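=== RUN LOG ===
request id: a7f3
mode: sequence -> structure
chains: 1
length: 218
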Amino acid sequence: MSPQDTLSGESISNEVSQEKYHGESNENSDENQILVGQAPAKRIVPPLNFCPVERYLYRSGQPSPVNFPFLLDLNLKTIIWLANEEPQDSLLVFCDRHDIQLQFAAINPDGGEDDNPWDGLTEHSIINALQTIVDQDNYPLLVCCGMGRHRTGTVIGCLRRIMGWNLASVSEEYRRFTGSRGGRILVELLIEAFDTNSVKIDHNRAPPWLLTALEQPE
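=== RESULT ===
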């Protein structure tokens, strides 16, 4: 047998071995595959700008009925609504039906008829929302506003300040949800000037991830 024949034989042998190997791999992978004949009947659609913040803490825009099956999977205990105006009636009914506490963190409760629904949050409303967030008894918890951008971003940004995040990281997270128009400088200034000591934290009731953050050296 010539060297060429030997090389050809080895090549064929290698090809057969590779085919056998790939065949076994495909057979094993087929066992782990699940074929779906049709789409599930229940649509699972998260709210606009939905995102986990920490374990059992979420943020989003105002949920609508199409999002309710998704929210049910979160087993929410509390929803913080950051606005003066009430949310849609469907959300009120949903919370009442599923025993979810809906907390109104009013922007300016004394604003009356002249209050601007697009105003930013006051320090009082931010502290009110954060006092709920730092209490684990309120979890799982969703923080939301109309679009899940500026008001929600303000509260989450102030929470990050409490957790010891630097301002660059806080701003980057805030701007991630503001869309093409970008962030508002007044929001970032409010987050920067927020007095983190104004929120009272009970270490016996605080979420574990918050306690871990507070224990980190500055």
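=== NOTES ===
DSSP finds eight helices and five strands in the chain.
The helical segments are 3-32, 68-74, 89-97, 123-133, 150-162, 167-176, 185-193, 208-215.
=== END ===
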